[in-house]
Design a protein that fits this description.
CATH topology: Undecaprenyl pyrophosphate synthetase
CATH class: Alpha Beta
Radius of gyration: 19 Å
Shape: globular
Order of helices and strands: HHEHEHEHHEEHH
Distance between the termini: 35 Å
Strand order of the largest sheet: 1-3-2
Largest sheet: 3 strands, parallel
Structural class: alpha/beta
Strand content: 5-15%
Number of strands: 5
Amino acid sequence: MDGNGRWAKKQGEQRIFGHHNGVHSVRDVSEACAELGVSYLTLYAFSTENWNRPKEEVHALMTLLVNTISDELPTLHKNKISLECIGDISQLPEDCQKTLAEAIAQTKEYDRMKLILALSYSAKWDIINAVKSIATMLKDNQLALEDINNDLISAHLSTAKYPDPSLMIRTSGEHRVSNFLLWELAYAEFYFSEVLWPDFHKEHLYQAIFDYQKRERRFGLTSDQIVQSK
């Protein structure tokens, strides 16, 4: 969800103004995904690198996070959306952790869609933790070297209980992944939009999905093999 700061600058406002307006897009896109039958929506809300931003902005973002989660609970209930989270949550302020835990607990029974917030998240952090966990199992003779494969690594990531993404959308014209789901995005389709996140709404989501539906996902196979398998 990129472009909040640039959007605010265009309005002659501070960066946090853009983050506040970006919340509207979160609501719009989340509701649209639920309506379309999307089962999993992961939003890259705050990376581990974002902790290096000016303290005032980080503090404002954390305050916004708490308020947004509280304010959007009725929307989650109305749409039967369960809230979940990936990332190093221990780094968040205590009030953020508390509000987040309460929202997750209150919505855990919903199964229409899972809305996963990536908070204090880094794909490299996640992979390093997975490697450490597997190395410990090897050291303790709980695992043999030949047991290490794709499935084992996936099982030790924070995303283990979710399917790999089919489509990754990045807004604001940036063409990079920025340390997001590096392992899981191996065979995802990428869609880059020039639209800044606060201006990204349902119609832009639909455009991304229409574009995705035109693509042929081969997973290393040839087009002829895909046709023969149908």
